[in-house]
Amino acid sequence: MGHLGVLLFLLGGLGALADICEIPQVDSKLVERLGQRLLPWMDWLSLEHLNPSIYVGLRLSSLQAGAREAFYLHILKLSYQHSLLGLTFNDDNSDYQDKPSMGQLALYLLALRANCELVEGRKGDRLVSQLKRFLEDEKKAIGHNNKGQPHTSYYQYGLGILALCVHQKRLHDSVVGKLLYAVEHEQHLRQGHLSVDTVAMAGLAFTCLEHSNLNPNRKHQITRAIENIREKILKAQTPEGYFGNVYSTPLALQLLMKSSMPGVELGTACLKARAALLASVQDGAFQNALMISQLLPVLNGKSYVDLISPDCEAPRVMLKPVVETPSPTQEVISVVLNVPSVSPPYINSISVPAGSSLEDVLKKAQKLRGFMYGTQNTLSGPFLTSVMGKEAGEREFWQLLRAPDTPLLQGIAEYTPKDGETIELRLATW
Ligand code: B12
């Protein structure tokens, strides 16, 4: 090969490198500040606040919480085993009555794997059987003709497959087949628009299956689905660089990281996403513990697929707690709260201190009378379930919007309305 040949060869190599999705290291102080926001959650040990996703996120990050982290897993185990297997340690506690959902059980299994445990023995087998049963029920709900919908969501369906896969538990081809079908026929994964979170989760599940070769009969279909998902996610990149929106970008990057796509400038797309993400972290967009738990692995170059063989010996930096003192504010703002989907419609201007969350606005409106709302606690925080006594029905939800028509990207606990803003609560279908 002549000099020119060598040069072209090297340039070709560099070009190929640039097409790999890599996330260069991020300022460790920034990562630490994110991790510190998880610490208060790890002290919140009431059953309805326990969150296996936080544990998973921390274990796949470059950070650790020492004894606190170990104790958190211990409490997670007690609580999940109790509510799923009926093992007692305080029988008359009513908190135990709600059984974890399919997705929560899946996240719990991911948490065990993040501690390098494999589900085994009688207890482990029962947990695996429960998750398999959940998936079988969902498969039935989707139906032979794929016309139905899972009771939970395709997001949880993907999470369930992923969790069993990292424990090397085999699922029937037909269970995997439903998710393959949904990815091929995208309309099933839409919540108005393509849900990047949902396809990314499906992609993580398929990537695990591909690595583990647990469904050899579906091998080619799985490989094609992963390619298809990568393409969908790339197409969903916004001009700012997000894949979908700021909060779906962490899962999207978990999927794209370390992958390459022939003929596509994946490297550039990922660098752009990383830059957009870091700017929004600096702007304080990541306050929600669940969101932080999906982001931290990415900032450490890891994804949920790494739970196939987690590195439990990797050195991690110990987190030190910080006390954040919110600066008191004298300024009062007014926010218009509008609920057109009830009769008579509700509309009122509510005054709250600047910096209040939407939840503070709802509380104040309720205190002033004439307004009522209800919430349910979830891993993402308080989910608005009813407004003015009207509960959202099946496949309905109370959508949060900034007038005239912009859906909020945060929930009631995190969104802080600005002075003069109108917030609409709209009964919508998904
Ligand atoms: C499916 C889904 C929905 C479904 C949930 C219904 C269902 N039966 O599954 C629907 C379409 C109703 C929905 C609604 C909303 N969602 Co949503 N949702 C998701 C998704 C894709 C998966 C959630 C899940 O199943 N997790 C796994 C299970 C095991 O955890 P879980 O806690 O048990 O799950 C429940 C909660 O997540 C809850 N939920 C769903 N979304 C949200 C959002 C918030 C803020 C809260 C508190 C709870 C909540 O519904 C789940 C099922 O019961 C996530 C994606 C993600 N990356 O996490 C986005 C996600 C959590 N949603 C998001 C948002 C913004 C919303 C809305 C606020 C949108 C809006 N403008 O109205 C509303 C919630 C409004 C309200 N009433 O409080 C953001 C949250 C970002 C953040 N900063 O925290 C995410 C990350 C999507 C995104 N990339 O923007 N969502």
UniProtKB/TrEMBL annotation:
Binding site for cyanocob(III)alamin: T152, S153, Y154, Y155, Q156, D197, N245, Q294, W398, Q399, L400, L408, W430
Molecular-function annotations in GO: cargo receptor ligand activity; cobalamin binding; metal ion binding; molecular carrier activity
Disulfide pattern: C21-C270, C165-C208
InterPro entries for the chain: Cbl-bd_prot (IPR002157), Cobalamin_Transport (IPR051588)
Primary residence: secreted
The keyword Metal-binding is annotated on this UniProt entry: yes
Signal peptide residues on this chain, from the entry's feature table: 1-18
GO CC annotation terms, alphabetical: external side of plasma membrane; extracellular space
GO BP term, example: cobalt ion transport
Compartments, record wording: Secreted
Keyword set, alphabetical order: Cobalt, Cobalt transport, Disulfide bond, Ion transport, Metal-binding, Secreted, Signal, Transport
UniProt subunit comment: Interacts with CD320 (via LDL-receptor class A domains).
Family assignment from sequence similarity: Belongs to the eukaryotic cobalamin transport proteins family.
Described purpose of this protein according to its UniProt entry: Primary vitamin B12-binding and transport protein. Delivers cobalamin to cells.
Name listed for the protein in its UniProt record: Transcobalamin-2
Organism: Panthera pardus (Leopard)
